[in-house]
Design a protein that fits this description.
16 helices, 17% strand, 48% helix, single chain, binds guanosine-5'-triphosphate, flat, Four Helix Bundle (Hemerythrin (Met), subunit A), 13 strands, Gyrase A, domain 2, six-stranded mixed sheet, 467 residues, alpha/beta, seven-stranded mixed sheet, Rossmann fold, binds magnesium ion
Length: 467
């Protein structure tokens, strides 16, 4: 069984490695003629291959000739369908990575009857032959695009299918109830109830809770993908911009001894321990009459809202007891938001002889003493950032990182809400059935049980050619 009745019969071919000169280049063919085309251009050393006894998943050494002229010595592997990536017969040819060899080999394969593959066409075929579902296919693209441990982890988990199973499980439970409801519609005149309303309400509650927790994980997923936002905040002149520059190892922000130097938020992303962090240097918090500075300060509060982690920087060399108490109030009001992690940074340790006691007594919170200017103890800051991210990433077992999945979950959640309301208010069964179908539809689009050609086109066109 396949997803498409129109799955075309062409044998496709593409260069699967990056274009350009390399040690080796890999061409891939898929389709009913893949083996015939390979036999046409390739002569193996092995007798079993010559006699047509080709063993699947075994690499054969041999030569490719173009009109009698030796083009290259290559390794060729046949993957007999359905035990291949696409589910069809697949042939992989590893040739030497000369651009000239690549071009001629590609022409040879096309002359022998293959056509160039379009972007993502191999994976599209794998989906069509149900070797993987849609969310797994998307994870393949995410895996190829991954550039850090966190994006890689997300992609691998999704590719493994844990998320797909969860969605399919939710959907199955609903399908069972939906069929009872549909049955009631068939017997509408007899006024029967096949579906136990109490059980149904309970199930809806469970599914809603599951959908909610999955959609909440999107924030984590999104953050892991685009960089964990870390806002560097504090009074003017405490060394926030210096800390940003030190963390980034680049003179990104202007540093000066004039308080109020930074007016606008400055951001940049770096990878620490496999996680993308997006550091945001902000305008120092203070009462000011300067219009522009005040706009900057307002922006600082916006950035605090968006951040997952806040580094609150103090200048130890100028921090007397009075100021420390004042800051404490400021700090406590910010800390009301429990979803954020706060780390107190005592900066300019090079300027003081000993840690002021009022500072360490100030607040019961993780505090790191550094010198941003002399790059002292910066490692402690990175370690602490990594620890807090690992904690939160470990909490969620399934993390939704794909915006399409998130929106489908939201829509499914809304439809479930309607179903629940309908049941509670004794709304006619046909209306409940219609909302139920909507919920099933939206869940189905995540894994591709429900799809449109437009949706598939959108997803696969973003793939590389050759995957
Ligand atoms: N001695 C010493 N000076 C530092 C340290 N960190 C920063 N400074 C100095 O403190 C001054 C202010 O640094 P900035 O990084 O511009 O401070 P800021 O918090 O970004 O200031 P605003 O943008 O005005 O809010 C500069 O003269 C820095 O060289 C440090 O660890 N030790
Ligand atoms: Mg600054």
């Amino acid at each position: 069984m396949t997803h498409f009745d129109y799955l075309n019969n062409d044998t496709i071919c593409a260069l699967s490695t990056a274009p350009g000169m390399a040690a080796i280049a890999v061409f891939r063919l898929s389709g009913s003629e893949a083996v015939a085309i390979a036999l046409n251009i390739f002569s193996a050393r092995s007798r079993e291959f010559q006699q047509g006894r080709i063993v699947s998943h075994k690499a054969y050494l041999g030569s490719v000739y173009d009109k009698g002229e030796l083009l290259d010595e290559v390794l060729l592997t046949v993957f007999k369908g359905p035990h291949s990536y696409t589910g069809e017969d697949v042939v992989e040819i590893s040739c030497h990575g000369s651009v000239y060899v690549q071009q001629r080999l590609f022409s040879l394969v096309l002359e022998a009857g293959a056509r160039p593959a379009t972007a993502g066409e191999f994976t599209m075929r794998a989906f069509a032959r149900q070797r993987l579902d849609l969310s797994q296919a998307e994870a393949v693209a995410d895996l190829i695009a991954s550039n850090s441990k966190s994006t890689h982890d997300l992609a691998i988990k999704q590719m493994r299918g844990g998320f797909s199973e969860k969605i399919a499980g939710l959907r199955q439970k609903l399908v069972d109830f939906a069929s009872l409801i549909e049955l009631e519609l068939d017997f509408a005149e007899e006024d029967v109830e096949f579906a136990d309303r109490k059980e149904f309400l309970q199930l809806i509650g469970e599914i809603k809770a599951e959908i909610l927790s999955l959609s909440q994980s999107f924030q984590t997923g999104n953050v892991l993908k685009s960089g964990i936002p870390v806002a560097i905040i504090g009074r003017p002149n405490v060394g926030k911009s210096t800390l940003l520059n030190t963390l980034l190892n680049e003179e990104k922000a202007i540093v000066s001894e004039i308080p109020g130097t930074t007016r606008d938020a400055i951001e940049d992303t770096i990878v620490i321990g496999g996680y993308n962090f997006r550091f945001i240097d902000t305008a120092g918090l203070r009462q000011s009459d300067d219009l522009i500075e005040n706009i900057g300060i307002e922006r600082t509060y916006e950035k605090i809202n968006q951040a997952s982690i806040i580094l609150y920087v103090c200048d130890l060399s100028s921090c007397n007891k009075e100021l420390a108490e004042e800051m404490l109030d400021e700090f406590k009001s910010l800390m009301k938001d429990e979803s954020k992690k706060f780390i107190l940074i005592g900066n300019k340790i090079d300027q003081i002889k000993e840690t002021p006691s009022h500072f360490s007594e100030m607040v019961d919170l993780e505090t790191i003493f550094i010198s941003a200017k002399r790059k002292e103890n910066i490692q402690l800051v990175s370690d602490s950032l990594l620890r807090s991210v690992r904690e939160s990433a470990a909490q969620a077992d399934t993390i939704v990182s794909n915006a399409r999945h998130y929106h489908a979950l939201m829509k499914a959640g809304e439809a479930m809400e309607e179903v629940e309301n309908g049941l509670l208010h004794n709304i006619p069964t046909d209306l409940i059935a219609s909302d139920l179908r909507k919920a099933l539809h939206h869940l189905g689009t995540i894994t591709g049980q429900v799809y449109t050609n437009e949706l598939l086109g959108n997803i696969f066109s973003k793939f590389c050619i050759g995957k």
